[in-house]
Design a protein that fits this description.
The complex is a heterodimer of chains A (about 110) and B (about 120). Chain A is an all-beta fold and about 110 residues long. Helix content of chain A is about 0%, strand content about 55%. In chain A, a hairpin with a 6-residue loop joins strand 4 and strand 5. With about 120 residues, chain B is an all-beta fold. Chain B has no helices and eleven strands. In chain B, the strands form two sheets. In chain B, strands 2, 4, 5, 6, 9, 10 and 11 form a seven-stranded mixed sheet that branches. In chain B, strands 1-3-8-7 form a four-stranded antiparallel sheet, with no helix packed on it. In chain B, strand 5 and strand 6 form a beta hairpin. Chain B is globular and about 40 Å long. Classes of the chains: A mainly beta (about 110), B mainly beta (about 120). Chains A and B meet through strand 5 of A and strand 5 and strand 9 of B.
């Protein structure tokens, strides 16, 4: 099936630093989603993007839907210790019909040192 | 409280012993799905269901079965578990409806399965 390339695989940063991660696809997507997974829990949706070029913020998080519709990035500003976790991108292909299937990236493990 | 529940949360079993992991949601969602999460591989979809009695294979369906007899329940069945099915499993659901609602999948807390 379709795969997303998510990078970096892991990041170790100091509290207060900004973070950036991205996902790319070989196919055109009509939806990009960013999830966060805390240790021992299921992923939780952070930001949803539905239009090419769209830039959306959720507190210190900002995500953009790439103009080519094949990529997306997530920025976290002024990181804090509770930002620790695994961040997943997910996308839905522009295949028409009522296909609800999401394809997930492999995740970015974020560690924040206080 | 709106939620997706899974049982059991942890399970250790032996090769070949049939098991079922239950998933239930109380949000009246049409769409439900099962994923497995493995280190370095992210989340991979096993099966999904668009509605009652409608199921389809995801990316890694081999060795698994599902059923959707009721809207709220979507059990995952391993008829003859093998060690390569040791993994963390997540059930998820989402509503159908507006374009902006069906994309938000709500995940359960996960089931950690070990097959010896």
């Amino acid at each position: 099936g379709q795969q997303l390339n998510q990078s970096p695989q892991s990041m170790f940063i100091q509290e207060g630093e900004d973070v950036s991660m991205n996902c790319t696809s070989s196919s055109i997507f009509n939806t990009w989603l960013w999830y966060k997974q805390d240790p021992g829990e299921g992923p939780v949706l952070l930001i949803a993007l539905y239009k090419a070029g769209e830039l959306t913020s959720n507190g210190r998080l900002t995500a953009q839907f790439g103009i080519t519709r094949k990529d997306s990035f997530l920025n976290i500003s002024a990181s804090i210790p509770s930002d620790v976790g695994i961040y997943f991108c997910a996308g839905r292909e522009n295949s028409g019909g009522s296909n609800y299937k999401l394809t997930f990236g492999k995740g970015t493990l974020l560690t924040v040192n206080p | 409280e709106a939620q997706v529940t899974q049982n059991p949360r942890y399970l250790i079993t032996v090769t070949g012993k049939k098991l079922t992991v239950t998933c239930s949601q109380n949000m009246n969602h049409e769409y439900m799905s099962w994923y497995r999460q493995d280190p370095g591989l992210g989340l991979r979809q096993i099966y999904y269901s668009m509605n009652v009695e409608v199921t389809d294979k995801g990316d890694v369906p081999e060795g698994y079965k599902v059923s959707r007899k009721e809207k709220r329940n979507f059990p995952l069945i391993l008829e003859s578990p093998s060690p390569n099915q040791t993994s963390l499993y997540f059930c998820a659901s989402s509503p159908r409806g507006t374009r902006f609602s069906y994309n938000e999948q709500f995940f359960g807390p996960g089931t950690r399965l070990t097959v010896l």
